[in-house]
Design a protein that fits this description.
With 192 residues, this protein is α/β, with parallel strands linked by helices. The protein is built from two helices and eight strands; from the N terminus they run αββββαββββ. The structure holds copper (II) ion.
Length: 192
């Protein structure tokens, strides 16, 4: 009989523990709701912060954009395969603009360069470049008639040159690899 009583008391004890556990479960959702509510509220500010960060970024971007948009010129030029001729014979940019010219030498065999020179001087510059040699990219250092130039580009490579467009007028561009100046040249027109 006493064992039966102990068993009953034991069962009661178990039931009380279960009840307590259930009570704990009831309490748990309450805690969950708390944090659950806190998480979204935290996420809201965090979402707002990135927006605030984006705003300053936009403020900086216009400043960077303003300079190029005031006179940035992106030019590209290539060659007609392995022929000794550029695929472009004329460029036109505004005086004072910041020019970025990319020369894509798609030839499979020829080295080339792109040299901007004073009008009518392409052959003289080429002759001086021949004297300067390949170590100088076939361009005489400090040649007074050279305004800007790329390096000597191997076949299948590309290069770029950046410069400020000179005063309004007509200039020439030429490849000064020995002999190429006879067919590889064009006009570079700068407008006011
Ligand atoms: Cu060339």
């Amino acid at each position: 009989m006493q064992r039966a009583v102990l068993i009953v008391l034991g069962l009661i004890g178990v039931l009380m523990m279960l009840a307590a556990a259930c009570g704990g479960d009831d309490a748990a959702p309450t805690f969950t709701r708390g944090p659950a509510t806190a998480v979204p509220s935290t996420a809201v500010p965090s979402t707002t912060e990135p927006v605030a960060t984006t705003a300053p970024a936009d403020t900086v971007t216009p400043a960077d954009t303003v300079a190029p948009s005031l006179g940035g010129e992106s030019l590209t030029i290539s060659v007609d395969g392995d022929a000794l001729s550029f695929d472009t014979s004329n460029f036109e940019v505004s005086a004072g603009s910041e020019v970025v010219l990319i020369f894509d030498n798609v030839s499979t065999i020829n080295q080339h360069n792109w040299v901007l020179v004073n009008d009518g001087t392409k052959d003289d510059v080429a002759v001086r470049g021949t004297g300067a040699g390949p170590g100088n990219d076939w361009v005489q250092p400090d040649d007074p008639d050279v305004i800007a130039h790329t390096s000597l580009l191997d076949a299948g490579t590309s290069g770029e040159v950046r410069f400020t467009a000179p005063a309004a007028g007509t200039y020439q561009f030429v490849c000064t690899f020995p002999g190429h100046n006879l067919g590889m040249f064009g006009d570079f027109v700068v407008t006011p």
